[in-house]
Write a structure and sequence with these properties.
It contains 8 helices and 12 strands. The chain is of the alpha+beta class and 275 residues long. The chain has a single domain (3-266), classed as Deoxyribonuclease I, Chain A (4-Layer Sandwich). The record marks 228 as: Important for catalytic activity. GO terms for molecular function: double-stranded DNA 3'-5' DNA exonuclease activity; metal ion binding.
Length: 275
């Protein structure tokens, strides 16, 4: 594997922010970007803007909500629009549970990579909360299967909609009775961590949070959450050398409520030779 800079970013409407997304790619020399909440159907995605910037795109979008994509300048093959076992959802349990646009996979530069937008959960006790947990259980089983080969370079990344530790929110008291921090959600997140993958951003990125709500001036007060992550299989995780959260992007006017999370992957011998 050659050196790669891989980023994940909940862009919160790619059509609204296409210019700033391609600007981010150029500014940070990103090889692969996993996007979430593109909020458009496949036929409305701004492919041309990315193609002009030198990127191929795989996008899964059915409506004007959800939506995931991978943009790559190091190859894009074997695209998949869902992972095996991915559950569907409908508010009415008697209706068909249709699969939503929450996962897209592709092989980029020798890495099998997935962009994921985990369900929000809405409220404790809501059917969407149960759907969120079911999504996590299915994802953990899938990751276990994908990491049986000890040499496989495999990664999942995106908006996981869980703050797995108390330190990942500005004030636990503010989340009393709310989603994202409950024990079932955190246990489900841990199942993914224990599926043969390693979360690589926490130990490498100094920035504490990746998301700040638009409400109540949360960003200005640094009242955020860490809910965006990159997980890598052992051989890929071993090449993770540096990471950062692009807080400056979040600080700009008209920004997404999430900041990009960027990781540099490079073989040790190559990394040592250029330090």
């Amino acid at each position: 594997m050659t050196a790669m800079r891989i980023a994940t970013w909940n862009v919160n409407s790619v059509r609204t922010r296409a210019d700033r997304v391609t600007g981010f790619l150029a500014r940070h020399d990103v090889d692969v970007l996993a996007m979430q909440e593109t909020k458009c159907s496949d036929d409305k995605f701004p492919y041309l803007a990315f193609e002009e910037a030198g990127y191929e795109v795989a996008h899964v979008g059915y409506h004007q909500y959800n939506g995931v994509a991978i943009a790559s300048r190091v190859g894009l093959s074997d695209v998949a629009d869902h992972f095996p076992g991915q559950p569907g959802f409908a508010k009415d349990p008697q209706k068909p549970q249709h699969r939503e646009a929450r996962a897209v996979g592709a092989t980029c530069g020798g890495v099998r990579l997935w962009s994921l937008y985990v369900p929000n959960g809405r409220q404790i006790g809501d059917r969407h909360y149960d759907y969120k947990l079911a999504f996590y259980y299915a994802l953990a089983r899938f990751c276990e299967q994908e990491t049986t080969d000890p040499a496989r370079r495999f990664a999942i990344m995106g908006d996981f909609n869980v703050a797995p530790r108390d330190e990942d929110v500005w004030d636990m008291a503010a989340f009393a009775g709310a989603t994202h921090v409950t024990e079932p959600e955190r246990a489900a997140f841990q199942m993914v961590e224990e599926s043969g993958l390693r979360e690589v951003t926490r130990s490498l990125a100094a920035q504490r949070y990746t998301y700040w709500d638009y409400k109540a001036g949360r960003f200005g007060k640094d009242e955020g959450m860490r809910i965006d992550f990159q997980f890598a299989s052992a051989p890929l995780a071993a090449t993770a050398r540096a990471a950062f959260v692009d807080v400056k992007e979040r600080a700009q006017a008209g920004a997404s409520d999430h900041a990009p999370v960027v990781v540099d992957y490079q073989e040790a011998a190559d990394y040592d030779s250029v330090r």
